[in-house]
């Protein structure tokens, strides 16, 4: 599913002062691609991600996710649309008091997934991420890589069209990072899910992204195929 920003800006009011966090005249993330965003802290990467996952609205401009102009949806339609956008996080954001299965069941129930099919769906998701034998385990008994696999399974539970990754491998060692990146690539290929990745790890972008946007000061100052971004000028 493609994501299109037109004349978007995002301004925060902070202690009586306006902070212009994002200005995007034109940005198209193509359906089915892995798009990476890099830039220093404060460049606007998280703001851009929060506009795609519909947690925030832009101050001006329009955003399309697939066929929907999400900037024109009402609250009810926004809630439904949000379920089609999965997200994974640096700190995994699992509920520690729930088992692996219940962490996933939780989002399926919230989306009114048919009750009788929830258990089967959890099995399917855990098989996809290679964690079938951890179904009844609590997060504290999982390694970091296993926790992120649960995070990915949960993000995919409602068959999203888009998967957003916010520093998802930044808490993992290089070896584990590699296995998570391979899993994300497989998900992109096999399920056709559009993936948007933000990270400060250049190796991750080089390994995973097909196209890259470089952000600075609320704008995308350069955008190209990954090998061109990282080739000498
Ligand atoms: P005040 O109390 O004067 O309103 P705060 O620093 O508590 O200012 O910020 C208000 C809210 O705005 C906080 O909830 C915080 O999460 C958010 N916020 C403020 N500045 C930033 C920032 N630079 N980055 C992210 N969030 C911010
Ligand atoms: P990045 O993810 O690249 O580090 P952000 O999108 O978090 O950048 O921040 C972009 C700019 O917007 C920064 O100047 C930041 O301080 C500001 N900002 C982000 N969120 C808030 C907020 N909730 N309130 C006020 N300012 C914010």
UniProtKB/TrEMBL annotation:
ABC transporter domain span: 3-233
Keyword RNA-binding: no
A molecular-function term among this protein's GO annotations: ATP hydrolysis activity
Keyword terms, alphabetized: Amino-acid transport, ATP-binding, Cell membrane, Membrane, Nucleotide-binding, Translocase, Transport
One of the protein's GO biological processes: amino acid transport
Residue runs in coiled coils: none
Entry GO terms, CC: plasma membrane
Protein family membership: Belongs to the ABC transporter superfamily.
Protein name as annotated: D-methionine transport system ATP-binding protein
Organism of this sequence: Lacicoccus qingdaonensis
Parent-record interval covered: 1 to 233 of 337
């Amino acid at each position: 599913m493609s994501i299109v920003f037109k004349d978007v800006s995002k301004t925060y009011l902070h202690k009586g002062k306006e902070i212009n966090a994002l200005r995007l005249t034109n940005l198209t993330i193509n359906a089915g691609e892995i798009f990476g965003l890099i830039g220093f802290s404060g460049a606007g990467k998280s703001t851009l991600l929060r506009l795609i996952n519909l947690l925030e609205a832009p101050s001006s401009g329009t955003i399309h996710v697939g066929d929907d102009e999400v900037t024109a949806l009402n609250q009810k339609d926004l809630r439904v649309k949000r379920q089609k956008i999965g997200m994974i996080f640096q700190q995994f954001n699992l509920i520690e008091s729930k088992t692996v299965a219940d962490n996933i069941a939780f989002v399926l129930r919230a989306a009114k997934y048919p009750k009788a099919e929830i258990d089967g769906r959890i099995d399917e998701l855990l098989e996809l991420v290679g964690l079938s034998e951890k179904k009844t385990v609590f997060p504290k008994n999982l390694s970091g890589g296993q926790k992120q696999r649960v995070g990915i399974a949960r993000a995919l539970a409602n068959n999203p069209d888009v998967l957003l990754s916010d520093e998802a491998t930044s808490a993992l060692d290089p070896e584990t990072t590699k296995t998570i990146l391979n899993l994300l690539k497989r998900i992109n290929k096999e399920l056709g899910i559009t993936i948007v990745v933000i990270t400060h790890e250049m190796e991750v972008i080089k390994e995973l992204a097909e196209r890259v946007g470089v952000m600075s000061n609320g704008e995308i100052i350069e955008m190209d195929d990954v090998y061109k971004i990282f080739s000498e000028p």
